[in-house]
Description:
Elements: E1 5-7, H1 12-21, H2 24-28, E2 35-41, E3 45-46, E4 51-56, E5 61-66, E6 72-75, E7 83-90, E8 94-95, E9 99-103, E10 108-110, E11 112-116, H3 120-124, H4 129-135, H5 140-147, H6 156-159, H7 165-175, H8 202-214, E12 239-245, E13 253-258, E14 264-268, E15 273-277, E16 284-288, E17 304-306, E18 312-315, E19 321-326, E20 331-336, E21 351-353, H9 357-360, E22 363-367, E23 376-381, E24 386-389, E25 403-406, E26 412-416, E27 419-425, E28 432-436, E29 447-449, E30 455-459, E31 464-469, E32 474-479, E33 487-492, E34 497-502, E35 507-512, E36 518-522, E37 532-535, E38 542-546, E39 552-558
Parallel strand pairs: 2-10, 2-11
Antiparallel strand pairs: 1-10, 2-3, 2-6, 4-5, 4-7, 5-12, 7-9, 8-11, 12-39, 13-14, 14-15, 15-16, 17-18, 18-19, 19-20, 21-22, 22-23, 23-24, 25-26, 26-27, 27-28, 29-30, 30-31, 31-32, 33-34, 34-35, 35-36, 37-38, 38-39
Helix pairs in contact: 7-8
Amino acid sequence: MTRAVRPLSTLVGAALLWVISAGPLAAQTQSSPALVGTVTSHAEGPMEGVLVGARKAGSTIATWVVTGAQGEYRFPRERLEPGKYSVRIRAAGYKLPDTPVDVTASGARLDLQLEKITRTTELAVQLSNAEWLASVPGTAGQKVALAGCVTCHTLQRVLLSRFGPDEMAQVVQRMSRHTNNSSLLHPWMRSAEDFPHRPPSPGQIDVGKYLSSINLSARDTFEFPLKTLPRPKGKATEVIYTVYELPRPDASPHDTVFDAQGNLWYSDFNSQFIGKIDLKTGKVVDYVVPQSRFLQTAQGGLQIDIDKDGRLYIGNMFQMAIVRFDPKTEKMEAFKLPMPESTYGDGHLTMVDPAFQHVDGKLWVNVPYETGTAGGTWQVDLARNTWTQVTYPPGSPSARAYDVVATSKNDMYGIGLAVDKIWVTSGKTLQTVWYDLPTKGPGCRRGHVDARDRLWCGVFQGNRVAMFDPETKKITEWKMPTEWTRPYDAQFDDRGYVWTAGMDADLAVRLNVDTGEFTEYLLPHRANVRQVHVQKVGSLSSLWLGDQHGNTIVRVEPLAP
Length: 561
């Protein structure tokens, strides 16, 4: 393996050539790069689209770049200060041990030669969920059932398991008893009363048979080819990633939001914490969120958002409460649904949108449910602690929301996974109007409004993003270029681009709405993305993502329009 390391002061000619040919990145970098090199392999020679990451010893922040057409990579000087770094790569089908490098004041060069993976089991641990779903045999229904596993863990745990059909049916049954915010470190269980002891159902037996037919229960290797997505190329290589590692190993960042001081806040999906990150130093401060239901073991929050006064709001899931936190005073308040717990069923308060609470003093809340009567959409006045449940006339379409999004008038958009409609509820009258999505079947999962009050949302199972224009009353859809991207959320940057990402493909996707051009940015590591947060600073917007299955938050910063 070749790893040539030498100061850039000995490579003046090479550096000059790089400045001339580097393109957009060079235009943004006023000095020579801190670290450069070429990535090659015996199988391919110079390799385009390899992600190269560098993290300084003792730091919780890593910077990643992507190799260009000739296999070259470059770290801008302002991103790497002098010091000892560990370098690693991401390229499906290839491996490289973590490699040390000293970055001096004059910079350094590190050429990397990758080793091609030959063992199927080594490749298997590199696959994204989307690559597994593209690889395994099965009907569309069987693959959708398999895809449901990614809510709590990667598909590697399923495919690399050795459970036979009977054992796997029991596993499927047990998995159904976990809450949807469970994780390997926090396997929260639903109420025992909801799941009396009985053998697996016929449907669970069928799923168990399917899963055991594609795992390693009867063989030592897979009988189907493992498919990998193509590496990035062209514009998808013109990007810088910044990865922030959170101090708690069990941290599960779900949503993120910025405050006026530039701090990034995140909600923890599995634990009673919210966190604040100083993006310059990487320092994280965690704040404990008090429990509201002590007989309910499941913990964690989903949506985190901020109001005009800088106060943070969290939907505290199975604790069935809105939590409000004032960073100035560090006062934490919990507001519980004003109904007996006997009405809660399996309801879990997920979404809370206070963005336009200043319009009329009210915010919007959503409680998904299958049992109980407390579920549904609520308009809440926290100053008076009055909760008004939105109701619908007989014969109305289904309004089982997954997300609720406030407009600038503090009306509400409703969207739902199994509802192929977008609906608008008036904040004044609570009357609702429904609009049909062009493609029937699946509906949107999460969304944001833009400066024109247009709603942008991710059509999760439909592998599309959609936009509702309140002026024309029309809905426009765009299909993702990669199967199993499954956009979870979508946000427009008010400059011409809409961003999305999902739980499966490890891709951040940017769409130029005017031209229809998609750019797919491969993330530095496997990531289960639930919410996208667009930062509208500078000429190009960037994207912030929490990895709900890991303790990292990632910034995706394009370098080209």
